[in-house]
Amino acid sequence: MSQTLLKDANFRWLMGGAVLSGLGDQFTMIALPWLVLKMTGDPLALGLVIAIMGVPRAVFMLLGGALVDRYSPKSVLMVTKFANALVIGTLAVLVLGAPALLTPPLLYALALALGLAQAFAFPAGMSILPTLVAREHLQAANGIMMGLRQLLMLAGPLLGALLMVVGGDDIHAASRQGQGAGNANGIGYAFAYDCASFLVSAWTLAKVRVLAGAQAAPAPGQGVLHAVAEGMRTLWQNMAVRTCFIYWSLAAIVVGGTMQVALPLLASRNLDGAASLGILMGAHGVGTLAGMALSRTKLRAITFGATILAIDALVGILMSPLGAITAAWQGMVLLAVIGVLGGYMQIAVFTWIQQSVPPHMLGRAMSIFMSIFMGVAPLSAMLIGALLQWISLQQLFAGGGALLLALATFAWIATPMRHIQAHYEAAPALAEDVSQP
């Protein structure tokens, strides 16, 4: 099936642009925080930049999903590529040519613009595959695209950091206009590559052709806010989608903050600091990539919903001993297995949503799905941070694992989730059944 996809010109153009742009995204993810810290030396300023990007992204993503459904994923994605290129290009020009003009308020404004662009780019990017790839190839296409993204997440930060080391990252020396030997060219080159990658990927996207009938037009004259409300109402009426989205929201509260806050603390307290954290995250990343590769194997013996619940139960069991580890290899083993399970589940979940939601609702469905995690994650992180003032890491991981196991068990016993089927498991599409469990 992969060979069939690779022969598809549509998929090749999309994949090529995604690889170039994805690598540029990783460069910016390294360069922007480093630039903030080099400019201000203040972790609070870095937190403010992240918040300025994250909050509008989560809020406006719902509107982005509605616009995707109105104008097509390709059209919205094209606009966001040029918008991102403009913002990142401005950063590159300032760092390389006029660093003295780059002030914290200007940086905050550019971060806000980036967050807004991402709010529309995310639902468009997650909704475009079903409009370009035949339905029977969608699982494999998701596996390839998300696997490439995971590879870029492993390699991109390393290449971006190397670029800044070789090119220079001293923004203060650069702003003195020649006084001193330092410069920030490495940071500027990272932004310049990302800007160029957006422009090239816009060109490759222009080569893509939407499949006939793949993009349904919404009702004429419908307002954007009305479209958002209609999307939320329609998804709520779909029993399968409603059940899964509620379950995933609760699971995100349990897992999201634990992994974001407690894992770095674990590396700091129990292991050897930053080096151990890198090893742990690398093991999780490699495991995730392996899980994505395994996603082509469909577990037909049990339903989609039962598969998700079984995976979450296993993740809960594997999380529980993390707080008690005393060696990096122990964490590597646990997190690699968790990564395999998570990678498999990611592909399955994205494909299921794409196949279960009517085409004209897909942008809104994806935006709601992402808003769940982007909205819940900061709240979960705050909760975990507060809990760690009162309990130990061992208690936190053990409690979090037990809660996830209990949640999966409860959903298995008390909800219809274990009966929810994937598209290949049922004759009618789930989107056609909005009332029966």
Describe the fold and architecture.
It contains 16 helices and no strands. With 437 residues, it is mainly α. The chain folds into two domains: 1-207, MFS general substrate transporter like domains (Growth Hormone, Chain: A), CATH 1.20.1250; 223-437, MFS general substrate transporter like domains (Growth Hormone, Chain: A, Up-down Bundle). The radius of gyration is 22 Å and the shape is globular.
List strands and helices in order, with pairings.
Layout: H1 2-6, H2 9-40, H3 43-71, H4 73-97, H5 104-127, H6 129-132, H7 138-167, H8 171-175, H9 185-206, H10 224-237, H11 239-270, H12 274-294, H13 304-319, H14 328-356, H15 362-387, H16 393-414
Helix pairs in contact: 2-3, 2-7, 2-9, 3-4, 3-5, 3-10, 3-15, 4-5, 4-9, 5-15, 7-9, 7-12, 7-14, 11-12, 11-15, 11-16, 12-14, 13-14, 13-16
The count of DSSP E runs of length 2 or more, i.e. the number of strands, is: 0
State Rg: 22 Å
CATH homologous superfamily placement of the largest domain = MFS general substrate transporter like domains
CA-CA gap between termini: 32 Å
Helical segment count: 16
CATH architecture of the largest domain: Up-down Bundle
Q: Write down the domain tally.
A: 2
Parts with pLDDT < 50 across at least 5 consecutive residues: 426-437
Question: Which structural class should the secondary elements be placed in?
Answer: mainly alpha
* Strand composition percent: under 5%
Helicity level: over 70%
Q: What is the general shape?
A: globular
What is the name of the CATH class of the largest domain? Mainly Alpha
Quick one: biggest sheet? none
State mean pLDDT (0 to 100 scale): 79
SSE succession: HHHHHHHHHHHHHHHH
Q: What do we call the CATH topology of the largest domain?
A: Growth Hormone, Chain: A
